[in-house]
Amino acid sequence: MICSYCQTENNKFASECNFCKAPLKVERPSLNREVMEEDYEKPFPILINYHTYHLLLLLRKAREERTRCYHLMRGVQKGSKWIEIASEFVC
């Protein structure tokens, strides 16, 4: 049996790959699907069935969003030092 993960030849009765230790009876995800914006918030039990390439795309999107939020937060922090608010508007 050939491992679908690392393509190593294994004994036909083996339950896991001799080289990478991946389970041989598990069907690997394919690249046939597209990653949609809704996929970003799916739970781990669903994401575990995604192909590694799709997980990398999701990770890139998450990092871009985190970076955007960080820069926005830093802008607000720095901007608040330069802005004076009249005491009549503060509750």
Q: Order of SSEs, N→C?
A: HH
Q: For the CA atoms, what is the radius of gyration? A: 24 Å
Largest sheet: none
Separation of the first and last Cα atoms? 71 Å
According to DSSP, the number of beta strands is 0
Organism: Mesobacillus stamsii
Protein name: Zinc ribbon domain-containing protein
Lay out the secondary structure:
Blueprint: H1 44-47, H2 52-82
3D architecture notes:
- With 91 residues, this protein is an all-alpha fold.
- It has two domains: 29 residues; 43 residues, no CATH class.
- The chain contains two helices and no strands.
- It is rod-shaped and about 80 Å long.
- The mean pLDDT is 83.
What brief labels describe this structure?
mainly alpha; 2 helices; 38% helix; single chain
Kindly summarize this structure in a few lines:
With 91 residues, this protein is mostly helical. The protein has 2 domains: 1-29; 37-79, no CATH class. Helix content is 38%, strand content 0%.
